Amino acid sequence: MVEKRSFGSFGPEVPLGTGRGQRAAHLYILSNDALTVRLSDLGAAIVGIDAPDGTGELADVVLGFDEAAAYYPDSQGTYFGATVGPSANRVEGATVAIEGATYRLPANEGANNLHTDAVRGLHAQLWHAEADEARDRVTFTLELAPGEPGSDLELPGRRAFSVTYELDGHCLRMTYEAATDAPTFINLTNHSYFNLAGQASGSVAAQELAVFAERFLPIDGASIPTGELRPVAGTPFDFRAPKAIGRDIEAADEQLERGHGYDHCFCIDGYEPDDGTGGLPEPRLAARALDPASGRGMELWTTLPGLQLYTGNFIGGVAGKGGHVYEDRGGFALEPEFYPASPSHPAFPSAIFRPGRPYRAVTEYRFFTAEPVPGA
Ligand code: GLA
């Protein structure tokens, strides 16, 4: 089932793109026997996911806000649930070279760029929505065009982005596509923060996480990957077997100090580049998370090479849904994406797309339940 509702109006008008000049956002609610998912056309964002625990009890497992006005502008820089792009995560020196030309993004985190632009990025745009009742599916679309003042987000190409959310049993599937008429840089992600005990239940330190990555990307003092792919073995970054998120998070470790906890990209095993010509690529199992106390779990499958784990190191004090004030580590973000700073590391998988190589990615959240372990 797909239901459409008002999500209220928001402060300043969105500055560009499909929704230019508009101030009203909408919720699209997908539901089936297993899951209820609330989506917003503001930021093509996930606003809520109700999923069952081991006894069948539902809880909303993503952090967020009750109304559109709290999402835009995103004054606390949380990017809760949003589709982030066209350049998610960090670009070193805020510059991208494409076929000999240099493009400058805003230097909004020291000398570097984070998440394109806080008030103009794709997460801050009103997308066009198209619901497909028969398939429990909603597609959000948005176009960026060079030439219109400020409308290109500093990158080349007329680009048509689409994000489709679809329910399939216990799975929420997200399909991302972007066509461009000129070579350009595209790195999209979804920035949901999960708390599998329920969004208002405090620290996620006791929740278990497995990340299927032999290697991760160490960062410098400005959170830019150094270019090294470091084996996780013997480090606090070893999540190959499930462990509590908080088990090693306070370990004396230079990388954890630089990130103030986990804020690092893992190199998901088995990545194969997609040349954009065949059928959609097949996602691989990237991570599995479980709240042992409730038995509520989720797997993340993706076609993308990287997965940024961000343990909500700076979200303390943000007032979210139902007035609940989140604490640091009150949620963990799993952001499937191309590696951060790929433009400055030619050995990283390329996020340059062209007319003959459209951007395509599939990410799935597959929810499951387990026997609850009381007191875990
Ligand atoms: C990403 C970054 C974090 C932080 C969040 C947004 O996860 O890696 O450092 O900026 O986005 O708050």
Can you characterise this structure?
The chain is mainly beta. The chain has one domain (2-11, 20-369): Distorted Sandwich (Beta-galactosidase, Chain A, domain 5), CATH 2.70.98.10. Helix content is 3%, strand content 37%. The chain has helices at 68-71, 254-259; strands at 2-9, 24-31, 36-40, 45-52, 58-60, 83-84, 90-91, 95-98, 101-104, 113-114, 128-132, 137-144, 159-168, 171-180, 184-185, 189-190, 193-194, 208-211, 215-217, 230-231, 243-244, 263-267, 284-291, 296-302, 306-310, 332-337, 352-353, 359-369. The chain is globular, with a radius of gyration of 19 Å. The structure holds alpha-D-galactopyranose.
Task: List its salient traits.
Galactose_mutarotase-like, Ald1_epimerase_CS, 376 residues, binds alpha-D-galactopyranose, 28 strands, Beta-galactosidase, Chain A, domain 5, mainly beta, 2 helices, 6-stranded antiparallel β-sheet, carbohydrate metabolism, Aldose 1-epimerase, 9-stranded antiparallel β-sheet
Can you write the helix and strand succession as a string? Answer: EEEEEHEEEEEEEEEEEEEEEEHEEEEEEE
CATH fold description: Beta-galactosidase, Chain A, domain 5
Strand order of the largest sheet: 11-12-13-14-28-24-23-18-21
Structural class: mainly beta
Shape: globular
Indicate the multimeric state.
single chain
Main sheet specs: 9 strands, antiparallel
List low-pLDDT spans: none
- Output the CATH class name: Mainly Beta
- According to DSSP, the number of beta strands is 28
**Structural domain tally:** 1
**Radius of gyration from CA coordinates:** 19 Å
Quote the distance from N terminus to C terminus: 35 Å
